[in-house]
Structures are given as structure tokens and as C-alpha cells.
Write a structure and sequence with these properties.
- With 158 residues, the protein is mainly alpha-helical.
- The protein has one domain: Ferritin, CATH 1.20.1260.100.
- Helix 1 runs antiparallel to helix 2.
- The N and C termini lie far apart (51 Å).
């Protein structure tokens, strides 16, 4: 792998994992306290599932970003896909501080609904540039659907 390509991969992975780390700063202290006290549906996964799932998803997201950045020359389609990627990443970074930090599941539900829209738009735009990059985001979209249902159930039950 060429040096520039490797650098772009490291930056992409680092950026996505940094978003996850920022989210965990808001999340981790609230799990044994506030989150533990919430009524949750029976289909809530064990707490240990979340960091494994999210780390995997952040790595897939990073590879998608890298593919858009490294494998394709500048174009309006690539700029749109990357801009939408950063929009969804910003919304992703916002969700944990809203849900856990502010202890506001209702507001977090609004954020995650916007996030799903941004991810759908990112997949659509990415598919016009790099089909593999778009497919790398599909598991993320599926997980967000599940997370949205869980978020909505927590709002309804509390």
C-alpha cells in the first residue's frame, strides 16, 4: 500500500474511532447509573454487545470513507458523498451526548431519525462513486434501525 493511501486509511479509521471514543465518554459513566435504572424492552442486548458492534461499524465506516477518498479522484459526486458522510458522522457523534449525557432519550430519538436519513443519503451518494463503499455502510444502517427501535421503546416505556 502506498504511503499516502496508508495515511488516508489511518486518518479515516482514527476519525471514526475518535467519534466512538467521544461517545463512550458520555455513555460509560451513565451505564451503571441512569441507564441501568431505565425500563428497557426484553430484546435489549447485553451492555457488552454495544462496544463490539459499534467498533465493528466504525471500522466499516472508516473503510468506506477511505475508499471514497483514496480510490476516486475529485468530482462533484465524490464531494457530495464525503460531505454526507461527515454530516452523518456529526449526527452520530451527537447521539450519545444527547441520550446519555443529557439523559434525554426523546431528543436522542430525533437525532437518530435524522442520522438514519443522513446515512441513507450517504449510501445513495456513495453508490454513485463506489459501490463497495456504499455496501460497507449497509450494516450500519441496519444497526441504526435496531437502535432506533430500542431508543423509541425506551422513550415509550419511561
Amino acid at each position: 500500500m502506498k504511503t499516502l493511501s496508508f495515511f488516508r486509511l489511518v486518518v479515516s479509521v482514527g476519525l471514526c474511532l475518535a467519534v466512538g471514543a467521544i461517545g463512550s465518554l458520555a455513555t460509560t459513566p451513565k451505564i451503571p447509573t441512569w441507564y441501568a435504572g431505565l425500563v428497557k424492552p426484553a430484546w435489549t442486548p447485553p451492555d457488552a454487545v454495544f462496544p463490539v458492534a459499534w467498533t465493528t461499524l466504525y471500522v466499516l465506516m472508516a473503510v468506506a470513507l477511505w475508499r471514497l477518498w483514496q480510490l476516486h479522484g475529485p468530482s462533484p459526486a465524490r464531494r457530495l458523498a464525503v460531505a454526507l458522510f461527515f454530516l452523518q458522522l456529526a449526527l452520530n457523534a451527537l447521539w450519545s451526548p444527547v441520550f446519555f449525557g443529557l439523559e434525554a432519550p426523546g431528543a436522542a430519538l430525533a437525532v437518530i431519525i435524522l442520522l438514519i436519513g443522513a446515512v441513507v443519503a450517504t449510501i445513495w451518494a456513495s453508490s454513485r462513486v463506489d459501490t463497495i463503499a456504499a455496501w460497507l455502510l449497509a450494516p450500519y444502517l441496519l444497526w441504526l434501525g435496531y437502535a432506533t427501535a430500542l431508543n423509541a421503546a425506551i422513550v415509550a416505556m419511561n
